[in-house]
Amino acid sequence: MKTIKGPGIFLAQFISDKPPFNKLETIAKWAASLGYVGVQMPTGDADSMFDLERAAESQTYCDEIAGTLAEHGLVITELSTHLQGQLVAVHPAYDALFDGFAPEAVRGKPAERQAWAVRQVKMGAKASQRLGLKAHATFSGALAWPYFYPWPQRPAGLVEEAFAELGKRWKPILDAFEDAGVDCCYEIHPGEDLHDGATFERFLDEVGGHSRASILFDPSHFVLQQLDYLDYIDRYHQRIRAFHVKDAEFRPNGRSGVYGGYQGWVDRPGRFRSLGDGQVDFGAIFSKMAAYDYPGWAVLEWECALKHPEDGAREGAPFIKRHIIRVTDHAFDDFAKSGVDAARNRKLMGL
């Protein structure tokens, strides 16, 4: 068995133009001061905290980033191309909303935007390789999501065609991850075509069971869907290669339930919460992850409808550390073992 690495923190929700969250050196110092030992790094252009194109091209740049983090006792857990991965597949209904994730030069140009996104995620594979990382975090994007509820009735073949196209778009990207020796971990998330077990299985079929098609497990999204996140681990643990430690709660009433009634996050029955404030059974999750030899990191992704992010981050590191199980190297009842004697074993069975 393996002891999960952590605690880590996803920096995306904390980066801003205000100190200490505006520079890698200072945000690293802040994260380390809270007890984190790893950071999941969002990626972007030359003006961002992590220049993805430069990282894909330059080992020196990657070494500099790693060195800056190491000065504070930190390492990169995974790189993230969530926003870029989203743009690999966008239904036209969402074109205007998702254009903001792309550079101005490709906005309003879906084909060019998609090509940009594909190149970005492939660069994520190369940059991950340069950094010696084994897993990468991303989104799948979505072509079928507007039709997730079967009314009006979906025409025959619509879902099959959507997943065939999704697989066609991702297969070359997954091949790039194979070349880099890195697992591509899709966050299973509403709004993505990969949002539960059934959809992940559909996708696997379309990419021929690709060995690099992996899962970023985040139980909070399963609470909001009312999906059994513990059974999910039992079913798909061999594909889980990244882990967001994020809490949530679901408290339905006579006014609204899973769909949320178009309400804001505070008023929705299902809402994200800071660690320990929601309903996720993290004790059971960490136990299953340890039992199944999960090889990666436990990374806080802070999202909460109520609590201040800095308080959530401060509470998150000790929460994760408390739940990480240092796995045993021997059985608890070894003290009572009586040795191996094949002849005696046969005699005990009357043989």
Relevant terms:
TIM Barrel; alpha/beta; 10 strands
Q: Please indicate the percent range of residues in DSSP E strands (runs of 2 or more).
A: 5-15%
**Over the alpha carbons, how many angstroms does the gyration radius reach?**
22 Å
Predict the CATH topology.
TIM Barrel
Q: Tell me what the CATH architecture is.
A: Alpha-Beta Barrel
Largest sheet, strands/sense/barrel: 8 strands, parallel, barrel
Strand order of the largest sheet: 1-2-3-4-5-6-7-10
Number of helices: 13
Report the span from N to C terminus.
35 Å
> Spans with pLDDT under 50 lasting ≥5 residues?
none
Helical amount among residues, as a percent range?
A: 25-40%
For the record, the count of structural domains works out to: 1
CATH superfamily: Divalent-metal-dependent TIM barrel enzymes
Helix/strand-derived category reads: alpha/beta
What does the model show?
It is a single chain. With 351 residues, the chain is of the alpha/beta class. It has one domain (5-331): TIM Barrel. Helices cover 39% and strands 14% of the residues. Strands 1-2-3-4-5-6-7-10 form an eight-stranded parallel barrel, surrounded by five helices. The chain has a two-stranded antiparallel ribbon with strand order 8-9. Helix 6 (110-130) runs parallel beside helix 7, helix 7 (158-180) crosses helix 8 (197-206) and helix 10 (229-236) runs parallel beside helix 11 (282-291). The radius of gyration is 22 Å and the shape is globular.
